[in-house]
Write a structure and sequence with these properties.
Chain B: Its EC number is 2.6.1.2. Chain B: InterPro entries: ALAT1/2-like, Aminotransferase_I/II_large, PyrdxlP-dep_Trfase, PyrdxlP-dep_Trfase_major, PyrdxlP-dep_Trfase_small. The complex is a heterodimer of chains A (462) and B (491). Chain A folds into 2 domains: 3-44 and 342-461, Aspartate Aminotransferase, domain 1 (Alpha-Beta Complex), CATH 3.90.1150; 91-328, 3-Layer(aba) Sandwich (Aspartate Aminotransferase, domain 2). Helices cover 47% and strands 13% of the residues of chain A. Chain A contains 17 helices and 14 strands. In chain A, the strands form 3 sheets. Chain A has a 7-stranded mixed sheet, sandwiched between helices. In chain A, helix 14 (338-365) runs parallel beside helix 17. With 491 residues, chain B is α/β, with parallel strands linked by helices. Chain B folds into 2 domains: 23-70 and 371-490, Aspartate Aminotransferase, domain 1 (Alpha-Beta Complex), CATH 3.90.1150.10; 102-357, Type I PLP-dependent aspartate aminotransferase-like (Major domain) (Aspartate Aminotransferase, domain 2). Chain B has helices spanning 3-7, 23-26, 35-48, 75-85, 97-108, 125-138, 154-166, 186-194, 213-223, 247-259, 284-290, 293-296, 329-340, 347-357, 367-393, 417-425, 430-442, 469-489; strands spanning 59-60, 149-153, 175-181, 197-202, 228-235, 263-267, 301-306, 319-325, 398-399, 408-409, 412-413, 444-445, 447-448, 461-464. The longest helix of chain B is centred in the C-terminal third of the chain and has 27 residues, at 367-393. Chain B is globular, with a radius of gyration of 23 Å. Classes of the chains: A alpha/beta (462), B alpha/beta (491).
């Protein structure tokens, strides 16, 4: 499949999924929608502390009574004091409210044990917005040869489409499914080689933990990628929005941290943009549109243009900036809200772990379904060995085989998923992506329906 | 990792340099948050650190941010939004029933009953329906189809999306986009970013910044020599000019757009900000349809609105929408793809927009206090518009057109030759030099007219009329004194 085809198929599949999602909402059928990583839609609850802080910031009269806990009121007061005119309705500095940007910087420093500077951080309406702005710095539709960005296969379709819409070329590197979707440097080399004479590769985009794969990179793997970009002179784009979803024993280690630990020359030269967001994690506030980028080793002359680019978008929504502050600076032990915060976040974490284990077990028990172990992320991405008759039926219907499977899964079992072709996959392989961040009862119901459906489907097309 | 290293060191070896980066981005400027504003922020820091200055605070009259200047949010809106954020409050009897009703309705339309869930890329359907109904009421019953409404992250996002859709071609066939001079610099920034051709048409300062179709024609014909003009952007009420177009003018523009086969973009974010006697807001959509089917079924148009201005001033929510008329269905399919890459507009902004188009009705408990607040805000703005015009016109060397609408004044300043020469020496445009001096001497931050565009040899600045009346009087006084001093110094 050519790069153009990969992008076109991804776009079409994504559009179909979105339409189905809207259709499902309208008809209110008993459909389990696991097509996107949206905690609240799935039935998991927002955090009380966040929402109390938002309410107090929106309507400060609430702080006149003792109904809201002291730490909520204190946080709201501090936040409102950081807003122009004491209102969340004011514009903010282009990069975000300075106090909040500082808190993000502090968070990064605590997480990584390495310095982080606020002037290198920009808050934006969601991580994809800042990914687009950074890509814009590098991509230009008039460039000849086109500028290339190495992207993993499979990959989050939004980034693929952003690259294509900005006039860039995608250079796919295939993750090794049989090795748990590991990133192999040899494959990076091959991908780069394949770009010769086709485009000018300028950047490498990685997603860690992976979407849709759920693969969590080891420190060694991250080091190898950093060495690769240093050697090949590529700008590194690290999408780390799923960093709070870690299932196993392994730990999430940020690209920034590994870069710092590697010391000079890497730490002083490798150009890196790391992305994070309030959409995932324990917050799950996708609808608020809040994210940030931290830039490392970017040419100061270019940084001036980064500022201008972000400034013409005026600023990120203030409520999202507040959510970001809560995310990086949650209630601490001893704070009145800490206990409830812990209960609520533990619930989300145990739900995730439980669902990851169950989904892995059940999918692997189904004939013709093979799921790689996931160490992190919000999804499961099993491979389907579809019977030739089903593939034939799909072709006759003029649709991709995995779309065909997903459509039947929706019609017959009321489960809305995203087909593998929406993310890219090796030719002749088929996958389906499910979000596992749903209430435990929903997951059990999903797995029950899936098992029943799959058995029937395989029987029908045997 | 030393700070200089984190900030990067210029020079060879970097992947991303001034030379290798996208040349379009280098051409992007946004004066509203440009170097003057950055210096203003620096000065604020210096004041905080105790550095002595001839003033104790920096007055940021550069950006149309009402709340930053002390304007209060509308109580009802904030009540509903608080209820939406923390639905436990629905049990609290301190909140009025009409606020709770709206909150429940909005939450019911959100995934998992949460404003933190993704919405459809085009925006929550029932909110688009409410927007369509608002448009119908505003336009005397002319139908509006919710499918043609796209909610967005502020009007700016929708404007940029439309421009992306409209810009194509190369060389002589490259899309030309007609924009007013002076203009709100988002337009020039977006056009630079997209590599589109900016086609300027001049508003007539001597006639209250009015738009003349003759000038549109002149500009269009000149542009056809080197590009393919396909879009005509109008800002009504105007930014920075404040001009409110009369009905005849709007009809003339629509006729022109039809004759010349141009896509009309009507930026109407200030539609409630109309102050001058004899001026009235007429929406482009309404006039288009009142001109009959010959026009209403053919002219392609997008109208934009936002929650940032008018009487709400809720810039920080990034709420907005566009209504698209007569768009080719194939192009619409492309538009849907474009908006999907943004995932969705911020849901709190969508919720706020719903309240703006669906405010308390006369039979509802919050109606009286809502109307009182709304009226007070608009009356204060009208008074400030009048005051500004009066005071500035009494200053020798400053002439100010009536502020008919919007939130700004854009006076013409006469600068002595010596000042212009001095500015040139320092590598600055004279009005930027003037504004920088004003900032350093008085702590007042404005935006130089050169940031918006102006006729060659003329100079202006844009000031917002947003500070509270007493403070505004002081600001006007200080600018007056500064102007006289400056003129004296360079005479």
């Amino acid at each position: 499949m050519s790069q153009g085809e990969l992008a076109a198929v991804a776009r079409r599949a994504r559009h179909l999924t979105e339409e189905l999602r809207q259709g499902v909402r309208k008809t209110c059928k008993d459909v389990i929608d696991v097509s996107s990583g949206d905690l609240h839609s799935a039935g998991l609850k927002p955090l009380s502390f966040s929402r109390q802080v938002f309410a107090a910031c929106l309507y400060p009269e609430l702080m006149n009574s003792n109904k809201l806990p002291v730490d909520v009121r204190q946080r709201a007061q501090w936040l409102l004091g950081s807003c122009a005119g004491g209102s969340v309705g004011s514009y903010t500095a282009a990069a975000g409210i300075p106090n909040i940007v500082n808190s993000v910087s502090e968070f990064i420093r605590r997480r990584d044990g390495a310095p982080s500077y606020p002037e290198n951080i920009y808050i934006s309406p969601g991580s994809q917005w800042s990914i687009t702005n950074i890509l814009k710095l590098m991509l230009n539709s008039k460039a000849s040869p086109r500028t290339g960005v190495l992207i993993p296969v499979p990959c989050h379709s939004t980034t693929i489409l952003s690259i294509v819409d900005l006039g860039g070329a995608i250079v796919p590197y295939y993750l090794s499914e049989n090795l748990g979707w590991e990133l192999q440097v040899a494959e990076l080399h091959r991908a780069l080689e394949s770009a010769k004479g086709v485009c000018k590769p300028t950047a490498l985009y990685v997603i860690n933990p992976g979407n849709p794969t759920g693969h969590l990179q080891t420190r060694k793997s991250i080091q190898a990628v950093i060495q690769f970009v240093a050697e090949k002179k590529l700008f590194l784009l690290a999408d780390e929005v799923y960093q709070d979803y870690v299932h196993g024993e392994n730990e999430f280690v940020s690209y920034k941290r590994v870069l710092a630990e590697m010391g000079p020359p890497f730490s002083e030269t490798v150009e890196l943009a790391s992305f994070h967001s309030v959409s995932k994690g324990v917050m799950g506030e996708c609808g608020l549109r809040g994210g940030y980028v931290e830039l490392v080793n970017v040419d100061p002359a270019v940084m001036k243009h980064v500022y201008t680019l972000f400034s013409k978008d005026t600023c990120a929504p203030v409520l999202a900036q507040i959510a970001l502050n809560v995310m990086v600076n949650p209630p601490r032990r001893g704070d009145p809200s800490h206990r409830l915060y812990t209960v609520e976040t533990e619930h989300i974490k145990t739900t995730l772990l439980h669902n990851a284990r169950r989904a892995y077990e059940v999918t692997n028990s189904l004939p013709g379904v093979c799921c790689q172990p996931m160490d992190g992320g919000a999804f499961i991405f099993p491979r389907l060995a579809l019977p030739p008759k089903a593939i034939q039926k799909a072709k006759e219907a003029g649709t991709e085989p995995d779309i065909f499977y997903c459509n039947r899964l929706l019609e017959d079992a009321g489960i809305l998923t995203a087909p593998g072709c929406q993310f890219g996959q090796r030719e002749g392989t088929y996958h389906v992506r499910f979000c596992i961040l749903v209430p435990v009862a929903t997951m059990e119901e999903l797995l029950r329906r899936l098992t029943s459906f799959h058995t029937q489907f395989m029987a029908e097309f045997s | 990792m030393s700070q200089p290293a984190l900030n990067g060191v210029s020079g060879p070896g970097k992947v991303l340099t001034l030379d290798s980066m996208n040349p379009n981005v280098k051409r992007v400027d946004y004066a509203v948050r440009g170097p003057l504003v950055q210096r203003a922020v620096q000065i604020e820091k210096e004041l905080e650190q105790g550095v002595k200055k001839p003033f104790t605070e920096v007055i940021k009259a550069n950006i149309g941010d009402a709340h930053a200047m002390g304007q209060k949010p509308i109580t009802f809106f904030r009540q509903v939004l608080a209820l939406c954020s923390y639905p436990d409050l629905l049990e609290d009897d301190k909140f009025p029933e009409d606020a709770k009703k709206r909150a429940r309705r909005i939450l019911g339309a959100c995934g998992g009953q949460s404003i933190g869930a993704y919405s459809a890329s085009q925006g929550i359907e029932c909110i688009r329906q409410d927007v369509a109904r608002y448009i119908e009421r505003r336009d005397g019953g002319i139908a509006s189809n919710p499918d043609t409404i796209y909610l967005s992250t502020g009007a700016s996002d929708a404007i940029v999306t439309m421009l992306k859709l409209l810009v194509s071609g190369a060389g002589r066939d490259r899309t030309g986009v007609m924009i007013p001079i002076p203009q709100y610099p988002l337009y020039s920034a977006a056009l630079a970013d997209l590599g589109a051709v900016q086609v300027n048409y001049y508003l007539d300062e001597d006639r209250c910044w009015s738009l003349d179709v003759k000038e549109l024609r002149r500009s269009l014909h000149a542009a056809r020599e080197h590009c393919s003009p396909r879009v005509l952007c109008i800002i009504n009420p105007g930014n920075p000019t404040g001009q409110v177009q009369n009905r005849q003018c709007i009809e003339d523009v629509i006729r022109f757009a039809k004759e010349e086969h141009l896509f009309l973009m009507a930026d109407e974010v200030y539609q409630d900000n109309v102050y001058a006697e004899g001026c009235e807001f007429h929406s482009f959509k309404k006039v288009l349809f009142e001109m009959g089917p010959e026009y209403s079924s053919t002219v392609e148009m997008a109208s934009f609105h936002s929650t940032s201005k008018c009487y709400m001033g809720e810039c920080g929510f990034r709420g907005g929408y566009m209504e698209v008329i007569n768009m080719d269905p194939e192009v619409k399919a492309q538009l849907i793809k474009l908006v999907s890459v943004r995932l969705c507009p911020p849901v709190p902004g969508q919720a706020l927009l719903d309240l703006v188009v669906n405010p308390p009705q006369p039979d509802e408990p919050s109606y009286t206090s809502f109307m009182k607040e709304r009226t007070a805000v608009l009356a204060a703005l009208a008074e400030k518009a009048r005051l500004t015009q009066e005071i500035f016109n009494a200053v020798p060397g400053i002439t100010c057109n009536p502020v008919q609408g919007a939130m700004y004044t854009f006076p013409c300043i006469t600068l002595p030759q010596k000042a212009i020469a001095k500015a040139k020496e320092e590598g600055q445009i004279a009005d930027a030099f003037y504004c920088m001096r004003l900032l350093e001497e008085e702590g007042i931050c404005l935006v130089p007219g050169s940031g918006f565009g102006q006729r060659e040899g003329t100079f202006h600045f844009r000031m917002t009329i947003l500070p509270p009346t007493e403070k505004l009087k002081i600001v006007l006084q200080k600018i007056r004194e500064f102007h006289l001093r400056f003129t004296q110094e360079f005479s």
